[in-house]
Design goal:
121 residues; 3 strands; Rossmann fold
């Protein structure tokens, strides 16, 4: 069940649930490493997603060093990095996402353009 969840379901929580001892990049690559993906591929995917949401310059920062909106964008990238079939999102337009077009655009385009079924609660 855990392997299915890791590979097929992306989660975006309202509280982000990022690991404070890890960098932005490490938080995003974590699902890939859990799935035993090649670390080079995991990093490539994470860097690409972080670039799409304007966080290229923040990849080395720990999550406590970035704003709430940047934390939410990091959480979106973490949810998308495994290219899941289903995205579960707790109020994905909450906080500053709705005002932050790159993050919302990435979230919604991955949902509709890549065969992903979004579900928000």
């Amino acid at each position: 069940m855990a392997a299915f969840r890791n590979r097929s379901v992306g989660f975006v929580f309202q509280t982000h649930n990022l690991l404070p001892e890890f960098s932005v990049l490490e938080n995003v690559t974590l699902p890939c490493l859990i799935a035993r993906m090649d670390p080079v591929e995991a990093r490539r995917r994470a860097v690409a997603l972080l670039g799409e949401v304007g966080l290229s310059e923040r990849v080395a920062h720990r999550t406590g060093e970035i704003s709430g909106g940047e934390q939410q964008r990091t959480a979106i990238c973490r949810a998308l990095v495994m290219e899941p079939s289903v995205l579960l999102a707790d109020e994905p337009t909450g906080t500053s996402i709705a005002r932050r077009r790159p993050a919302w655009s990435t979230f919604s385009s991955r949902s509709t353009g890549h065969g992903v079924s979004p579900c928000s609660w």
